[in-house]
Write a structure and sequence with these properties.
alpha+beta; Fumarate Reductase Cytochrome B subunit; Neuraminidase
C-alpha cells in the first residue's frame, strides 16, 4: 500500500478497537465455540469421550489463562475506559433500548449512541457478569461433583443462554444490514468514518489516534521515546511542515509543539517541549496597511492545516492567517473596535473555527448566539438570536462562549450562565446539562462521550462530566503552584495529560490526569511578560505537530 493510499484509508476510517480489545474478543469467542463443540459431541464413554472431555476442560483453562494474560499484558487503561463506558447507561441509552425493536427493523430512526450503543453495553455486561463466570463456575462444579448433579444441569442452562446471546450477537454483527458495519471494527480495528457518524454520533473518534493500543501510540507520538517521533498525519502534519517545525527528540510530558494564543501580548506563538518559541505571528511586516491584530483570544488550525483562525474578542473580529514562508491575514469578519449585531458585526466573538464544509462558526457572546458564516460573510444559520439572552436552547442561548465542532457535524455549546448544550448537525438539541461552576468555558467532547470543561473562576477548576452532568473527575486547588486562576480552555491529549490555559496566572499547564499534578508549564506563575518564557493572559492553545 502506498503512503498516499494509506493516508486516504486513514482519513476515511477511524479507530474503534485497539489490539488488546480485539485479542480479548477473539480469544473468548474462539474458545467459547471450542467448548461448545466439545461439549455437544462429548458423549458419555469411550476414547472419543475422554479426548473431547479433556479438550473441553483445556479450553476452559485456556480461557481463564488467556483473559488474565491479555488483561495483565495489554492496554489496561483502554480496557478500564471500556468498562466505564459499558457500565454507564444514560437517558439516551434507555431511549435506545425502548425503541430497539422498531429501529433495529428499520422502522424508526436509531437514537444517538456513543462508542457503544445500549444493546452492545448490555451484551457486554451479560457476557462479563453472567455467562462467562457462570460457564466456568458451573463447569468446575460439574467436573468435581459429577455429571448427574444440579451443577451439571445449571451448566447446561447457562450454555443454552450463552448460545442464544452469541447467536443474536453473530446475527447483528454479520447478517443484519443495519448493524453489520461494526464487524469491520473488531476485525481490523477501524470502521468507516461516515458509518461511525451515522450510528454513533455521540462518539468522538478523532480523539483516538492510531490503530494500536494507547501505550503503543504514546511511544509513537513521544511521551517518553528518546528516538525521533513519527511524523503526525492530518492538519497537524501539514501545519508542522508549513511552520517548518523539526521532528522532536527526547523525553517530555508535552507530546508535540504547542500553539498558544497569547492574548494581551497580541500574538500567536508556537513553543517546543523544551520551552523555546519556534514560531510567532505577527512578525514585522506581516500586517498589511490598515490591518489590526489585537488580542487573539483563541487560535485553531483549519481542517486543511494550512491556516489558523483566531478570534479577537475585545476587538470584535475574527481572522484567518494563511501559513507558509510569509504568514498573513487572508480573511476577516467584524469591525475592529465596533461591536454590533447587524450583518458584518460581532460582539465579543469567542472560539472561531473553520469547519470541514468551509463555514466558519463562532460564539457571539454578547449577542447570545452561535453563528455559521460563509466565506463571503453571509450568515448561513445561527443557534440563538441577538438580544434574546436566556437559556432556552435551541431557541435562545445565554451568553455562549464556546462552540466546539464535533465529528458528526454537530456542535458543543458552552453558556456562561452555567450550561453545556449538545446540538446535532441540523441544530437539534441532544442534551443540555448544568456545569459545576457558574462560568463554564469551552467544553470539549471526550472519546468516551464524557465532557471536559474548564471553570473560569477564582480559584479555577477543570471537570469531566457525563452527558447527564455527573462529575467523574475534577482538578481543583485552593491556591499555591498547583492552583488555577480563571482557566478558559482544557484539552485532553493522547498521552493522558490535560493541557489548559491558566489565563490569569499567565501560563499554560499540562496536568497528569492520574496523579492530578502539573507536569509541565510554559509561563511564570502570576508574572506577565513578553520575553522568552513569559505570557500575558494566554487564552487558547492547540497541539501542533
Amino acid at each position: 500500500m502506498t503512503a498516499s493510499s494509506l493516508d486516504a484509508r486513514q482519513a476515511a476510517t477511524v479507530v474503534r478497537f485497539g489490539r488488546t480489545e480485539r485479542a480479548l474478543h477473539w480469544l473468548t469467542g474462539g474458545l467459547f465455540f471450542g467448548m461448545l463443540g466439545t461439549g455437544l459431541f462429548m458423549g458419555r464413554r469411550g476414547l472419543a469421550h475422554q479426548i473431547l472431555y479433556a479438550s473441553h476442560l483445556a479450553f476452559g483453562g485456556l480461557l481463564v489463562a488467556g483473559v488474565a494474560t491479555i488483561v495483565w499484558r495489554g492496554d489496561r487503561r483502554r480496557l478500564r475506559a471500556d468498562v466505564r463506558e459499558v457500565g454507564r447507561l444514560d437517558e439516551l441509552d434507555r431511549r435506545w433500548l425502548r425503541s430497539a425493536p422498531s429501529h433495529l427493523l428499520g422502522l424508526t430512526r436509531e437514537p444517538a449512541a456513543g462508542r457503544f450503543n445500549a444493546g452492545q453495553k448490555l451484551n457486554s455486561r451479560l457476557n462479563a457478569i453472567v455467562i462467562i463466570p457462570g460457564l466456568l463456575l458451573t463447569g468446575v462444579l460439574a467436573a468435581l461433583l459429577g455429571h448427574h448433579t444440579l451443577a451439571a444441569e445449571l451448566h447446561k442452562l447457562v450454555v443454552i443462554v450463552a448460545a442464544v446471546v452469541v447467536g443474536a450477537h453473530i446475527y447483528m454483527a454479520v447478517l443484519n444490514p443495519r448493524t453489520r458495519g461494526a464487524m469491520r471494527g473488531i476485525v481490523t480495528g477501524r470502521v468507516d468514518r461516515r458509518w461511525a457518524a451515522r450510528h454513533h454520533p455521540r462518539w468522538n473518534p478523532d480523539d483516538v489516534a492510531g490503530c494500536g493500543d494507547s501505550r503503543v501510540r504514546a511511544s509513537a507520538v513521544g511521551a517518553g521515546s528518546s528516538a525521533a517521533k513519527a511524523p503526525p498525519t492530518g492538519p497537524a502534519s501539514t501545519a508542522a511542515r508549513l511552520l517548518r517545525l523539526p521532528p522532536l527528540r527526547g523525553r517530555s510530558p508535552l507530546p508535540g509543539y504547542l500553539m498558544i494564543a497569547d492574548r494581551d501580548n497580541n500574538r500567536v506563538i508556537v513553543v517546543s517541549p523544551d520551552h523555546r518559541v519556534v514560531w510567532r505571528f505577527p512578525r514585522a511586516g506581516a500586517l498589511a496597511p490598515g490591518q489590526r491584530f489585537a488580542g487573539p483570544d483563541d487560535a485553531f488550525l483549519t481542517p486543511s492545516g494550512r491556516a489558523i483562525v483566531t478570534n479577537e474578542e475585545y476587538s470584535d473580529t475574527i481572522s484567518e492567517i494563511a501559513l507558509g514562508p510569509r504568514p498573513r491575514i487572508v480573511w476577516s469578519y467584524g469591525h475592529a473596535g465596533a461591536s454590533g449585531s447587524a450583518p458584518g458585526y460581532l460582539a465579543h466573538p469567542d472560539d472561531a473555527y473553520v469547519l470541514p464544509n468551509g463555514l466558519v462558526s463562532v460564539a457571539d457572546i454578547v449577542n447570545c448566539r452561535v453563528l455559521f458564516l460563509g466565506r463571503t460573510g453571509r450568515i448561513v444559520r445561527s443557534i440563538g438570536s441577538a438580544g434574546a439572552c436566556t437559556h432556552d436552547p435551541p431557541r435562545t442561548l445565554d451568553a455562549p462562549n464556546g462552540d466546539t465542532p464535533l465529528p458528526d457535524g454537530g456542535v458543543l455549546v458552552t453558556e456562561i450562565g452555567g450550561w453545556i448544550d449538545r446540538f446535532d448537525r441540523r441544530g437539534r438539541l441532544l442534551f443540555s446539562i448544568r456545569s459545576p461552576t457558574d462560568y463554564p468555558s469551552d467544553a470539549q467532547l471526550l472519546p468516551d462521550g464524557n465532557i471536559l470543561v474548564a471553570g473560569f473562576n477564582t480559584p479555577g477548576r477543570i471537570d469531566v462530566l457525563t452527558s447527564t452532568g455527573r462529575i467523574v473527575w475534577t482538578y481543583a486547588r485552593a491556591g499555591g503552584p498547583g492552583g488555577l486562576d480563571r482557566p478558559s480552555l482544557a484539552v485532553a491529549l493522547a498521552n493522558g495529560t490535560i493541557a489548559a490555559t491558566d489565563d490569569w496566572h499567565h501560563r499554560v499547564v499540562l496536568i497528569d490526569r492520574r496523579s492530578k499534578r502539573i507536569v509541565w508549564q510554559y509561563g511564570h506563575l502570576g508574572r506577565a511578560g513578553s520575553a522568552p518564557g513569559y505570557l500575558d493572559k494566554p487564552d487558547g492553545l492547540q497541539l501542533v505537530g
